[in-house]
Specification:
The complex is a heterodimer of chains A (179) and B (159). Chain A is mainly α. Chain A is built from ten helices and no strands. Chain B has one domain (39-158). Chain B is 85% helix and 0% strand. Chain B has eight helices and no strands. The longest helix of chain B has 35 residues, at 23-57. At the A-B interface, helix 2, helix 3, helix 6, helix 7 and helix 8 of A face helix 1, helix 2, helix 5, helix 6 and helix 7 of B.
């Protein structure tokens, strides 16, 4: 019981905020609830298939292949492959987190996973189309180039940091998941 | 809608192949999926609630009034904060950014809004932590803020 409350303390805190909001600013509370409901419908529909895909990846993806394609020695080809994977028209970024975790478990390098996540969020092809339409080709192009450079630097830096100071807790949990 | 069609199509194809190859392994995949989904559920619920709170507060009109009129450094920082905090679909965000740009906001401010919007996810951080770890999430979003601001600065200079 106690551990359940601990696990849900964040959503419980949020629920409390909503109660306060309904008392002090009912207008905003209604607006917020509607937004939450909309996102809830979206996630209920999208997340179960995403997690099943993640499960399938955990079970089927051959570790050796992922290591070759996206691992520490995949070099430039690995980086370009990660970038391209991210730009594919799929879904919002929270869809990418479980897939990225799965790739990491399978031996993809941190650099490549950071590039994959970043490109998923920032360089999606359908999103770029909308950007060109409303902000112009020059804006979109400059942002694309600068973001790509930034992602590579971020990825390399994070890999160096997380190798020196590994996230032990996360590594242990990853092992318990695939048992 | 297009998102769901793509994801469900990929899922169906993957499931068919998986089932044809091994029923056992497919079952195991579903078990892994359920376990991971349940583990992530509290973070997802919190994320949903926070998205509502933030978007309830920061309506498009409100965002316009915060970063549209006043140009300069303060507007850029405000734009970066709003971009980091919100989770807005690009179909809403880009038209909004375009109209702000036309109504007099600087390129730097608009870039800060867009780059933080796509590179930093404070709202999705609880979920990111659950599946990718605390350190990874803090590093990625922290560096994302710095990178986004630098990109905005450069774009302001270049464009």
């Amino acid at each position: 019981m106690k551990s359940t409350i601990k696990k849900f303390r964040l959503p419980l805190a949020v629920a409390l905020l909503y109660i306060l909001l309904f008392i002090f600013s009912p207008d905003m509370a209604v607006r917020s609830s509607l937004v939450t409901w909309e996102y809830f419908l979206e996630m209920v529909f999208i997340l179960p298939p995403v997690f099943i895909l993640m499960g399938l990846m955990e079970v089927w993806l051959p570790k050796e292949k992922i290591q070759v394609w996206l691992g520490n020695d995949s070099g430039l080809r690995g980086g370009i492959f990660s970038l391209a994977l991210g730009t594919l028209p799929t879904g919002p970024v929270y869809v990418a987190f479980p897939l990225a975790a799965s790739l990491l478990h399978k031996g993809a390098s941190i650099t490549n996973v950071v590039i994959f996540l970043g490109s998923w969020a920032a360089l999606k092809i359908p999103q770029l189309m909308v950007e060109i339409k409303f902000l112009g080709l020059r804006f979109a192009l400059v942002r694309f180039v600068l973001t790509t450079v930034a992602l590579v630097i971020m990825g390399l830096f994070m890999q160096a940091m997380l190798r020196r100071f590994p996230d032990k807790k996360w590594l242990d949990e990853g092992e318990s998941l695939s048992e | 809608m297009a998102t769901s069609i793509i994801i469900y199509s990929i899922l169906v194809i993957a499931l068919v192949i998986s089932l044809a190859k091994s029923k056992e392994k497919t079952k195991k995949a579903c078990k892994v999926a359920t376990k991971a989904l349940l583990k992530t559920a509290p973070a997802l619920l919190a994320m949903l609630g926070i998205v509502g709170l933030i978007l309830g507060l920061l309506t498009p009109q409100k965002i316009s009034s915060l970063i549209g009129a006043e140009a300069g450094f303060f507007a850029t920082i405000t734009a970066a904060v709003i971009g980091s905090l919100t989770l807005i679909p690009s179909l809403v965000a880009f038209p909004l950014a375009g109209s702000l740009l036309r109504s007099g906001a600087t390129v730097m401010t608009i870039s800060a809004f867009i780059t933080t919007l796509v590179m930093v996810g404070i709202v999705t951080a609880p979920m990111e932590m659950k599946v990718l770890g605390k350190k990874f999430t803090i590093l990625r979003n922290g560096l994302g803020i710095i990178a986004a601001l630098l990109i905005a600065l450069l774009m302001g200079v270049i464009l």
